[in-house]
Amino acid sequence: MDREEVLKAIKRKQLEENMQGEFLATIEERISRYQELDFIKLTPNTHFAFVSVECINLYRDGYFLACIALCQAVAEAIVRLMCERSKFNSLSQDYEENIKNLHKRAIQPDCDELFKEIWKDRNNYHHLNPTIPTEKSKLQDIAKSKIIALHRIESKVFEFNIVDGAVSPRYPKYWDFDENGMLNVYLRFET
Question: Which pTM does this prediction carry?
Answer without folding.
Answer: 0.89
